[in-house]
């Protein structure tokens, strides 16, 4: 009971300080308002930047028009027409506020291509010299344009009419924001690519059946064989793309970044694109590694490639399962789960900083103020006195974590809906997709992150006990906790990956979870994954050692003041 009483007295002493009350209150208030702030943040945060960039490009196109306006040669007129196309193209972006991550970008690109093709047939109809047109041609196919010169006037007019119709149709999709029409067009385009590749295979099969004996025929057959093999792979890829587009079309899924189903489809498409990157040969990898500064061996690269491949396949299967069963993936939706998962580490960091502030002076201040003798003349063992101070520090730290995350849980649920907490997470366990309750997913992560809090509490108490200097305890602990992240980034950038095998990066594991760029660099460049569980164990072991040192020194130290 003595320990409980001493701990209580220590807590009362700390909370009598106005600064501690204010800091504690501010931390808890942020947990209340943070979800509201996040909800007001636009999903497309770069829309204004995109608009300004597009306005600049419109002005640039205007300048190009002015520069070529006075040139009445055929080349000059072509330049003027191309500048007009560029202006019209970028004006679409400005008028309809097409952002960086907007499906209408695809249609805008198709609009520009159609405009360039239309300009080419118009040059031919206006009697421009073939050599001048071919030499200054932009975007359009030279073979197609050469063929235009062989067509009859009626056929040329037919091509022109078709391109005008195509251009207007594409513009209509953009102006009407008709995402369904866009999806249908994308489906047709994929089918067109499939048909084109099938024709390549058919041409190869026909020539193969003829079994040419002459050198020219053999050379063409060999060339077609390579193209046919590539076509087979392309058809498989386009069929995968078609499946995704058909699912979007069937379920009428728009391209809104606030729509989790759209985000899930984007995730699948991204992971599939990554899967299509082939494993490099040792020679290819050696060349790339030299250029990019990768230091992992080829065997490590192969191992890393296969592990990532398995992870991506699992991810794709999980997201597909979620789409088919109406279970949004955590990273594809802004709901209570994702907001809490992306912000709870903030309160772990704030708790550690508070522990440093309090723990730095909890023992040292007793020596500097001369109250340590009064404290120790009580009929209480020294170890109980120090233990009560340690418990007070830990209680304050964990109070911030528990109350901060607890209030954040409630405020996030109130803002985004408590029912979203009921949505399970999907994980692949032993080859099967398993539904995991969100709270069961979150709690272990919080426990692992708490190892940093225990370590810093032990460290600051040890320094405070050994040095009897508050400033030194606070300074060393703060520099170590806040400085280890940039130091780790710097060392990883210098290929010094040994640091990841130590406990140092895990002292502030919360930073690396909030800002995962270092993790990504380690994985991509060196094939190394951060082991948070192992790091937490190391921190706890070192914490125990530090506390043993603190207690031994404190119990044997002579008190002179």
From TrEMBL:
GO molecular function, one term: ABC-type transporter activity
A GO CC annotation given for this chain: plasma membrane
The keyword Transmembrane helix is annotated on this UniProt entry: yes
TM helices/strands, residue ranges: 20-38, 346-365, 386-410, 442-463, 470-488, 535-555
Domain of life according to the entry: Bacteria
Coiled-coil zones: 214-241
The UniProt record lists the keyword Cell division: no
Keywords of the record: Coiled coil, Membrane, Transmembrane, Transmembrane helix
Protein name per the record: ABC-2 type transport system permease protein
UniProt source species: Clostridium collagenovorans DSM 3089
């Amino acid at each position: 009971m003595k320990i409980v009483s001493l701990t209580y007295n220590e807590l009362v002493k700390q909370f009598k300080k106005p600064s501690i009350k204010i800091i504690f209150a501010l931390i808890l208030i942020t947990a209340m308002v943070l979800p509201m702030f996040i909800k007001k943040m636009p999903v497309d945060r770069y829309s204004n930047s995109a608009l300004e960039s597009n306005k600049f490009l419109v002005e640039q196109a205007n300048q190009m028009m002015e520069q070529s306006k006075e040139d009445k040669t055929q080349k000059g007129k072509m330049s003027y027409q191309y500048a007009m196309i560029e202006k019209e193209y970028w004006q679409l972006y400005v008028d309809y506020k097409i952002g960086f991550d907007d499906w209408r970008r695809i249609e805008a690109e198709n609009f520009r291509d159609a405009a360039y093709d239309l300009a080419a047939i118009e040059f031919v109809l206006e009697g421009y010299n073939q050599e001048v047109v071919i030499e200054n041609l932009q975007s359009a196919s030279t073979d197609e344009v050469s063929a235009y010169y062989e067509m009859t006037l009626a056929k040329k007019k037919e091509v022109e009419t078709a391109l005008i119709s195509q251009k207007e149709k594409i513009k209509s999709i953009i102006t009407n924001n008709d995402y369904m029409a866009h999806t249908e067009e994308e489906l047709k385009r994929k089918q067109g690519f499939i048909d084109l590749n099938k024709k390549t295979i058919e041409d190869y099969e026909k020539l193969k059946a003829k079994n040419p004996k002459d050198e020219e025929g053999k050379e063409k057959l060999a060339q077609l064989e390579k193209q046919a093999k590539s076509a087979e792979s392309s058809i498989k890829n386009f069929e995968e793309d078609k499946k995704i587009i058909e699912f979007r079309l069937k379920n009428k899924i728009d391209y809104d970044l606030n729509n989790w189903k759209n985000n899930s489809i984007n995730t699948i498409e991204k992971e599939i694109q990554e899967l299509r990157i082939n494993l490099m040969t040792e020679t290819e990898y050696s060349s790339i590694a030299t250029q990019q500064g990768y230091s992992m061996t080829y065997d490590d690269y192969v191992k890393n490639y296969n592990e990532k491949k398995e992870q991506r396949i699992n991810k794709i299967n999980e997201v597909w399962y979620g789409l088919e069963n109406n279970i949004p993936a955590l990273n594809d939706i802004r709901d209570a789960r994702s907001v809490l998962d992306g912000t709870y580490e903030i309160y772990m960091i704030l708790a550690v900083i508070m522990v440093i502030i309090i723990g730095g002076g909890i023992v040292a201040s007793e020596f500097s103020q001369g109250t340590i003798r009064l404290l120790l003349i009580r009929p209480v063992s020294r170890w109980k006195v120090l233990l009560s101070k340690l418990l007070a520090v830990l209680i304050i730290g964990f109070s911030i974590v528990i109350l901060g995350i607890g209030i954040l849980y409630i405020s996030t649920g109130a803002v985004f809906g408590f029912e979203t907490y009921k949505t399970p997470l999907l994980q692949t366990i032993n080859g099967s997709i398993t539904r995991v309750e969100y709270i069961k997913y979150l709690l272990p992560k919080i426990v692992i992150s708490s190892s940093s809090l225990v370590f810093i509490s032990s460290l600051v108490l040890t320094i405070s006990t050994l040095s009897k200097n508050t400033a030194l305890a606070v300074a060393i602990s703060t520099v170590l906790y806040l400085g280890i992240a940039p130091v780790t980034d710097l060392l990883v950038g210098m290929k010094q990956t040994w640091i990841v095998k130590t406990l140092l990066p895990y002292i502030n594991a919360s930073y690396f979870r909030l800002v995962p760029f270092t993790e990504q660099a380690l994985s991509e460049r060196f094939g190394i994954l951060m082991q948070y569980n192992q790091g937490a164990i190391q921190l706890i072991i070192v914490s125990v050692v530090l506390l043993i040192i603190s207690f031994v020194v404190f119990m044997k130290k002579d008190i002179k003041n």
